[in-house]
Design brief:
Layout lengths: L1 E6 L3 H16 L6 E6 L2 H11 L5 E5 L7 H10 L5 E6 L5 H6 L4 E4 L4 H19 L2 E6 L2 E6 L3 E7 L2 E6 L4 E4 L3 H8 L5 E4 L3 E4 L3 E4 L3 E4 L4 E3 L5 H13 L6
Parallel strand pairs: 1-2, 1-3, 3-4, 4-5
Antiparallel strand pairs: 6-7, 8-9, 8-12, 9-10, 11-12, 13-14, 14-15
Length: 245
C-alpha cells in the first residue's frame, strides 16, 4: 500500500490526477494506492505535522493561494518528510528551485496519462530496488534467501524462533533471536521489542502504550517501560531515517 497525497487548489485538477492514478492502479494488480486530497499547502503541512501523516509520494501544484508549492515542499522537508515530491504546474519558472527541495519530477500541465505513468513507473522501480535486500538463513536444512522487506516480525517461543513474512509464510529458525537481530540491526526498519520479538516498523498498524498491532493481525503486548523509546524509534524512522531504504 502506497500513501499518495494530492495537493492542488483546483478540484478539477485533483479529480484528473486521481483518475490517472486509479487507471494506473487498476492496470497494476499488485499495486494499491491510498489517496488523500488537499486543496491547500497549509492543509497538507498541518496533516503531516499534527497527525504524523507519512505519505510515500506527494503530487503537488506549485501555484496555489497562500503558499507556493516550493515553499510548502521546503516546510515539509524541514519536518523530516522523505516522500517523493512530484510538482505538477503550468510554468517552468520554478524548475531549478524544485531541485533544492529534492523533488523527484517536475511536470508541466496539462498532465497526460502517459506522462504521469512514466513518473509512477520510475517511482515504483526505485522503491522496489530499495526494498530488495536479502537475508540468507538456514531453514529446514537448506539455505533460504529471504527478502528483508517481507519480514513482518520474528518471535521467540521457548527454545524455538519463528520468522513471519508478509505473505503468511512462517519459518522455524535454528538460531537465537539475538543472532538474528545482529543481522538485521543495521536496517533501521527493525527494532527489538523485549526479549521475545523483533518487529519491522513498516508493518505496524497501530501502536499504543500497551501493545503493537501488526498488519497481519498479530498483537504484541509491550514490556513495562518500552512504549516511549519504541514510539520514538517509530516516528524517527518515518520522519528522519527513511532516506536510505
Amino acid at each position: 500500500m502506497y500513501l499518495i497525497a494530492l495537493c492542488d487548489d483546483e478540484e478539477v485538477a485533483l479529480d484528473k490526477t486521481e483518475r490517472i492514478l486509479r487507471v494506473y492502479e487498476n492496470s497494476h494488480p499488485d499495486i494499491a494506492f491510498e489517496i488523500e486530497r488537499f486543496q491547500s499547502a497549509d492543509c497538507l503541512i498541518r496533516r503531516v505535522r499534527e497527525d504524523d501523516y507519512v505519505p510515500n509520494c506527494i503530487l503537488m501544484d506549485i501555484y496555489m493561494p497562500g503558499k507556493l508549492g516550493i515553499e510548502a515542499a521546503r516546510e515539509l522537508r524541514d519536518l523530516g518528510t522523505q516522500a517523493k515530491i512530484i510538482f505538477l504546474t503550468t510554468s517552468r519558472d520554478h524548475a531549478l528551485e524544485a531541485f533544492d527541495v529534492e523533488a523527484s519530477q517536475y511536470l508541466v500541465k496539462p498532465i497526460t496519462d502517459d506522462k504521469l505513468f512514466a513518473v509512477l513507473d520510475r517511482f515504483l522501480r526505485e522503491d522496489e530496488a530499495s526494498r530488495r535486500k536479502y537475508l540468507l538463513l538456514r531453514v529446514e536444512g537448506k539455505i533460504q534467501r529471504i527478502v528483508v522487506h517481507d519480514i513482518v516480525h520474528c518471535e521467540a517461543q521457548g527454545k524455538s524462533q519463528y520468522l513471519y513474512l508478509s505473505d503468511g509464510t512462517q519459518y522455524n529458525l535454528r538460531r537465537t533471536l539475538t543472532e538474528l537481530y545482529e543481522q538485521l540491526a543495521e536496517d533501521r526498519r527493525f527494532v527489538r521489542v523485549g526479549v521475545a520479538y523483533i518487529v519491522n516498523l513498516e508493518y505496524i498498524e497501530s501502536l499504543s502504550a500497551r501493545e503493537i498491532k501488526l498488519d497481519n493481525g498479530k498483537k504484541i503486548f509491550l514490556p513495562r517501560g518500552s512504549f516511549h523509546p519504541l514510539r520514538e524509534r517509530y516516528f524517527n524512522y518515518y520522519c528522519e531515517d527513511n532516506k536510505g531504504l
